Protein 1
Amino acid sequence: MNDRLKTYTSNAPQSNLRGDYSRAGPGYVVDQCWDDYTAGEHALWRRLYERQIRLVPHYACREYLAILQTLDAAGKIPRFDEVSQGLRATTRWELVAVPGLIPDLVFFEHLAHRRFPVTNWLRKPEEFDYIVEPDVFHDFFGHVPLLFDPLYADYMEAYGKGGLKAAQLDSLKYLARLYWYTVEFGLMGAPEGLRVYGAGILSSGGEVVYSVENPTPRRVMFRLERLLRTDYRIDRYQDTYFVIESFKKLIDDTAPDFTPIYERIKALPLFAPDELVSGDVVVAPVPPS
Ligand code: PHE
Ligand code: CO
């Protein structure tokens, strides 16, 4: 199994969420409480990190790898405030600790102001391979490195602003697919070959290999309207991955006003997660090495 993640689309705090929301103020920001992590939790973090660091050099995009090396996150759960210092200086982003999933609009407000919410708790040892809610390992290892990349950093801010706008237009379900298929499960047709930039893949021991090498799923070149109409599954590896050419191209493709696009596609049928659609440009998997 993979560490399948719900996204913020289903994240209104519910009674079944496991974080401690009692001290969360407006924005749901809490103290990371770094001193409360136990030696066992730091050790579990190390094991998770060691598994992924063996895999990502073969599968992650070079933008991600270049930054991961500089983060010094191998030995223990990182301190968000230390990482934020470097982030502020590099891309003007910062991390804020949250108890877990937060409401859509709160999430968008953070992104629109270049604040990335990171869950402050770590999974249990028995969740090494599979976790339902995002934890600090997913949020940090998967999402934080690329916030240091100037283009990706701008995309995330644009996404937050786009989310606030989509909410006004009653179109969140379309925009949520964009987050899912880019930020969480995106692939890039990089110069070095097919590579991963999606955080849900980068933090997963199984899907990082599967998404690039397995012949079963579809990989199709990114087309905005096609993607916005494509349903997704949250409980297993993806059926379809969308491949971008570069972060620059992703930003350009998502820059137009989505208002008329939402209007148009509301009248059109959805595509199933595993459907091949006319106009799709299929990308071949990389043979296992
Ligand atoms: N261009 C989008 C809009 O007008 C905003 C957006 C940008 C959304 C980038 C997502 C990513 O709604
Ligand atoms: Co995520």
Protein 2
Amino acid sequence: MTSNPESKSDTAQATPDRPTTPTASFVVVANRLPVERVPGHDGEEWRMSPGGLVTALEPVLREKGGVWIGWHGVSGEDLEPFEASGIQVVPVPLSREEVTEYYEGMSNATLWPLYHDSVAFPEYHREWWDAYRAVNQRFAERVAAVAGEGAIVWVQDYQLQLVPRMLRELRPDVRIGFFLHIPFPPAELFQQLPWRRQILEGIAGADLVGFQVPKDAHNFVRLLRQMLRYETRRDRFSAPGGRIGRARAYPISIDVEAFAQLSDSPGVVARAQEVRHDLGAKTILFGVDRLDYTKGLRQRILAVGELFSEGRLDPEETVFVQIATPSRERVEEYQRLRDDIELLIGRINGSMSTIARSPITYLHTHFPKDEIAAMYRAADVLIVTPLRDGMNLVAKEYVASKTDGSGALVLSEFAGAAEELKQAYIVNPYDINGMKEMILQAVRDSPAAKRRRMRALRRQVLNNDIHVWADAFLHDLDLIGYPTTLES
Ligand code: G6P
């Protein structure tokens, strides 16, 4: 069931849908709410938008009567708490200026590039930091207002790194988890941050800190020791006041079952055949990414373009389909990236296309889930080449969708997923020649060799879905607090 949230000025009284007392025993906090506004019976309604995190947490939210706190994606609109598909949602408003300074600025033009190996230049602005702090404080206050006594609070990602500590100050009774979905940088990069101490202290306000890969957890614990002089032992740290916290890796995953089912659904099967027919190619190479400079799109397009121009891939037989989903379009670096790759693709297609066909089909738009599923099903090779990526769920989605065991995955060694998906065709995206050879190998290997690799990949992904991830984190968060020493 969905209901209409109304703007504050329109609402007189709280309804039973609206939490007015701090009673929630489970609270998820993320920059974004997992809802989309859709046309409904009487005006607009809110629907839970599909996504791994929501799928994993929905049962827990329902069972524990939990709430999700976040921004609904529009500036200058202050909404009352509401219910979407049976889940309580508490919106946090952001002004236009805060969107510029906290979201586009500090989150996505400072922290995002810095945490991704500085593949774009991070900008440091004191006003952005002030806005980041103020918005994090607002999130913490919202949590403090809805969380019941002793509640479990799970804070998500780099936009909210100060929330754990701020919340602990407001509500020492709640148990706090924090999960970083993106990479945590090595000390040499992290040290650039003018606000490095505050960020470390902010995260360390959590009882349990989760990262995508063990190396990142180690980096974090080492920084606590070296920069904040915390006592640490293996994955444990002792925060001021003697509180013991833990930091370790929980590699995130996807709803494997849902991807498999969607891939095998009659509509998707038919659409995949139609796509193959329409593309009219023997071999389909596929890429799908948010249009982000961390994704290695320039390198990937260059490599595939050279394979075409050198005649090692035949445009009569092979097509490369690249979907690039629009993202953070007001941030300058994203605008530059779009110009660059569109120029590159234009040049390649301009010199290699015939009237009937082009070697690269490029789509800059949002695609529905089932259309992506049809592409996964139709694609012979998926190419995932980030320069740095926390995990990369597209790689796992492709593997989960290949229910017949066909397909080949080309995967960057700099994606967190490469730690688990070792049987992929692993590439270094900075090495264009090496990448070209590996893409060719993925195209030309025997079907038996590809199946062997895909079998191993599927075993890994099927055994480690998003539910395993959420259960592992919440289980550990539940246990924390019992051991009181660094040793136990
Ligand atoms: C990454 C981040 C998320 C973020 C998503 C989309 O996956 O880890 O926190 O929500 O990108 O980016 P956006 O800026 O549109 O929220």
